[in-house]
Design goal:
The chain is built from four helices and two strands. The protein has 122 residues and is mainly α. Strand 1 and strand 2 form a beta hairpin.
């Protein structure tokens, strides 16, 4: 099964059904796979991307641009590059700015980017 961690990266997680014993001590089969599914979901919660100390799941999306802009400047990006990125950051701010990072799923962002690509071009 593939799950997305908080960074949006898809990871393959495999779990087997946890052993469950009957009153007689015999193994009870997981016919529907529910125990295995629950094990996968528990494992998915444990998979977390290491975030920079300045970032947290509870910060607003609009705050990301400030951190990313600082990174771009430290990497020596030109003003033209910063301006182009700022335009995209404004689009994200309009769509998601007030939401917390954990409130914006990767699939929602992918849908937004697809619409933006069709409306404005690559």
């Amino acid at each position: 099964m593939y799950v997305r961690d908080t960074s949006g990266k898809r990871r393959e997680v495999t779990r087997v059904s946890p052993l469950e014993l009957s009153a007689q001590g015999r193994a009870v089969p997981d016919r529907t796979g529910q125990r295995a599914l629950e094990a996968v979901l528990r494992a998915a919660v444990d998979i977390r991307a290491e975030l920079d100390e300045a970032l947290s799941d509870s910060m607003a999306v609009r705050e990301l641009w400030e951190h990313y802009r600082e990174l771009l400047i430290s990497l020596g990006r030109t003003e033209g590059t910063l301006d182009r990125y700022a335009d995209v950051a404004k689009m994200f701010d309009t769509a998601f700015g007030g939401r917390r990072l954990f409130e914006v799923s990767t699939s929602v962002v992918e849908a937004f980017l697809t619409k933006a690509c069709h409306a404005k071009g690559p």
